[in-house]
């Protein structure tokens, strides 16, 4: 093996082998092989170890994660209704990058989650990354220990020893520590967002049986729809009743509750955006509320008693007119500078029709199609065709990704720039 290595010359047996010292002695031929063996055996042993073929286990470890398919690099996340602590952000993805085959190693680099569609292109150091994270806010919907304003009775109306719970309208009991104790808010700031330009805050109230990670983020793709719209917008999505058939509004039932939520969010948005000075910008930014299904209840109460009705410049309901028609009609009548859109299926059609007739009786023009941009004062009702399911409505209504579509149509109107540029009254 040594003789074959080009780094070593072939030994000529006619030449004597000498060693350093005061005297140089020629060794007899019979000792030459002994000396050569003593010199090269340790080195050859190391070379043999370096050249040894890798085991199957080593190959498996080194080649793991180097597949070319999307599924191998980014397996679909599995959520088991786990709710991290208030300080825990959404999980980060470890990105594995394969080096040259001859090196037989894998370099692992941590990559921050930039969007719901991970990309293999690492951001440049000078680029600001897209951020989707969870933030605990005191003014979020829950926990809530007040009364239900409809009945003026305590919201937590069931007890079992020290354990408190709420009996829903359907008769099912949900316990406070399991269902009404999550104060987190899903916050999304697209990488293209610029606080120096006119912008808007989108508040998303999810429906029944939902969690922020599993449903709002990963199934309904609300953060992705915000980014894909290209509109200068950020997202706030508070956790309502956790994974429960309950539409309770919690702190949004309280007078001024929605204003407190928006006020508290300004510092969080500024911190996530990366510029503390932008807090004042977020504190005056106009708002668009999107309510899906059971999210109609916190939407209606936020408009009625939230404390900043004129700062809300748009309301978009996704198959969500199950009640509170008086509150929606009142906001529309009093806020002719904002737009209102309700997209509905056969399940909510009777209530949507009733709301349309109420508005028309007040002399308010109602449109029943989504042709053209949304302008200040637009009131639009859109019935979706048969086959569109309620469960998939946030991603498939009259069009794919309706949240994105509404923002795009809003931005098509020149009035949007004027709306987003105009400062909002502090207490309106």
Automatic annotation (TrEMBL):
Record organism: Bradyrhizobium ottawaense
Name recorded for this polypeptide: Alpha/beta hydrolase
SUPFAM superfamilies recorded: alpha/beta-Hydrolases
